[in-house]
Amino acid sequence: MVINMNMKMIKTDHIANGRQVGGDYFQLQYLRKYNKTLQEYIKDIDLNAYYIFKSTDRQRLVTIDEFMEFKYSVYIFFKKELYNIENILDWCNWMKSIGGIKFLHKPTPPFNPYNKIIIRQ
């Protein structure tokens, strides 16, 4: 357990990772069967170098403070120097408009989803 500035208890144990933490993109999630703490994963990385999304049925960009509260979800990190935030947000909005997806797990394609692709025979 960790105590934040507001003296609230925040649960930051039982954290699992998907992909190598500190890579171009990775995710952290709460899984009861794991015994690693959040601090073990983030001690050697610069959180300011990543866009952090809370991966739910409503994908959204979160601040570092919101991430540190770790509200029993999946958080996905995209390295700022490699990924275009506007492109990711466009894809999140587009996915919401077609009914959504459950979780954002990987980087989005590097093109605008609102542009139509025409297939001619």
Structure, explained:
It contains three helices and seven strands; from the N terminus they run E-E-E-E-H-E-E-H-E-H. A hairpin with a 6-residue loop joins strand 3 and strand 4. It has one domain. The N terminus is likely disordered. The longest helix is centred in the C-terminal third of the chain and has 13 residues. The strands form two sheets. A five-stranded antiparallel β-sheet has the order 3-4-7-5-6. The protein is an alpha+beta fold.
In brief, what are we looking at here?
This protein has 121 residues and is an alpha+beta fold.
Q: Topology of this structure?
A:
Layout: E1 2-3, E2 9-10, E3 15-18, E4 25-30, H1 38-42, E5 50-55, E6 60-62, H2 64-69, E7 74-79, H3 85-97
Antiparallel strand pairs: 1-2, 3-4, 4-7, 5-6, 5-7
Looking at this protein, list some descriptive labels.
single chain; 121 residues; alpha+beta; two-stranded antiparallel sheet; 24% strand
